[in-house]
Design goal:
This protein is mainly α and 308 residues long. It has one domain. The chain has helices spanning 2-24, 32-54, 62-66, 68-85, 90-97, 100-112, 118-140, 145-149, 151-179, 197-222, 234-253, 258-265, 268-279, 286-307. The relative contact order is 0.23.
Length: 308
């Protein structure tokens, strides 16, 4: 039953990471979203080095290039997410970002012609109702975001979770359809086996994030942006640590009963919602909470349906 411990652990770790992401994405700090990317890249790079030193995965550096399309989808999506967090409540952004699973399902249907159960389509319908409801209230309801930020920035910030969901879904689709496939010999990755393919892919992603972070750091220095001392970035660093720790436990969580593990892993947005309400004191209208609840129910239904 260790997989159950790791499943719950992953949901908690990623939920806590979202809390610190939000705390680190300060609206008054112009480049806070890029600084978060730098710290995530540093921590992931260190984890990649640890993996290479402690695991015999026969890593070929060419896989950084081979896996680049997937890595970029994930990395760029996270950068957009961090930008949106500067101005949008975590209680809203995280459930919307977790709708990436819906987009991924649609990609498999449209591109590969896959078929899904009735429960999957019901889940997609439930999520759609919830997202439409949140979007309507955001643009026509009681929100004061437009008054605080101005119309353009309010719209842009609200679009960020959707951009994240879209890019993350494309990354997951490429991952599942072309890279992490059962026929290892057909994978674009080099020198992988059934036992090492996921570790090789994750290491490639982490090394790419580290290189991306280095480029961002040089960019910030070139623009004479004050990076500040390490203690000033404790929230950003903690977010990166919890994010990477969640990735570690996620691998072990996958060894469990999928129909049980999947909804637990997908409950990250529930954890994030509770933590945001408790620690960030986020308050939304009761109508918004109802539609967010509908989105979360749909996400959990989708997770169950995909594993049955």
């Amino acid at each position: 039953m260790s997989w159950l411990f790791f499943s719950v652990g992953t949901a908690l770790l990623w939920g806590i990471a979202e809390l610190f992401y939000k705390k680190g994405a300060r609206p008054d700090e112009k480049y806070s979203h890029l600084k978060i990317c730098v710290w995530v890249g540093i921590v992931m790079g260190l984890h990649a080095i640890f993996t290479l030193l402690t695991q015999d995965i026969n890593y070929d550096p060419i896989n950084i290039i081979r896996y680049l399309p997937v890595s970029l989808m994930y990395i760029v999506s996270m950068a957009f997410s961090y930008f949106g967090m500067r101005f949008l409540e975590e209680s809203i952004s995280d459930p919307i970002e977790n709708t990436a699973g819906v987009i991924c399902v649609l990609l498999f249907v449209l591109v590969l012609g896959d078929t899904y159960s009735t429960l999957t389509w019901i889940a997609i319908g439930v999520i759609t109702v919830g997202v439409v409801g949140v979007s309507f209230l955001e643009n026509h309801g009681e929100t004061v975001r437009k008054k605080k930020l101005g119309k353009t920035l309010a719209i842009v910030s609200f679009c960020m979770p959707f951009v994240y969901a879209l890019l993350d879904a494309f990354g997951t689709f490429l991952d599942d359809a072309y890279f992490l496939i059962e026929d290892i010999s057909a994978s674009p990755l080099v020198g992988v086996t059934e036992d090492t393919i996921e570790a090789v892919a994750n290491t490639s992603y982490e090394l790419t994030f580290a290189l991306f972070a280095l480029c961002l750091f040089i960019f910030l220095k070139a623009r004479k942006v004050k990076f500040g001392s390490v203690p000033q970035h404790k929230d950003k660093i903690l977010a990166a640590v919890f994010e990477t720790a969640g990735q570690f436990t996620y691998v072990y969580a996958l060894g469990g009963v999928d129909a049980v593990a999947a909804p637990i892993l997908s409950s990250v947005c529930v954890v994030s919602l509770l933590l945001s309400r408790i620690f960030l004191k986020e308050k939304l209208s009761w109508k918004t909470y109802i539609f967010i609840g509908i989105v979360i129910i749909g996400i959990l239904l989708l997770a169950v349906s995909e594993e049955l």
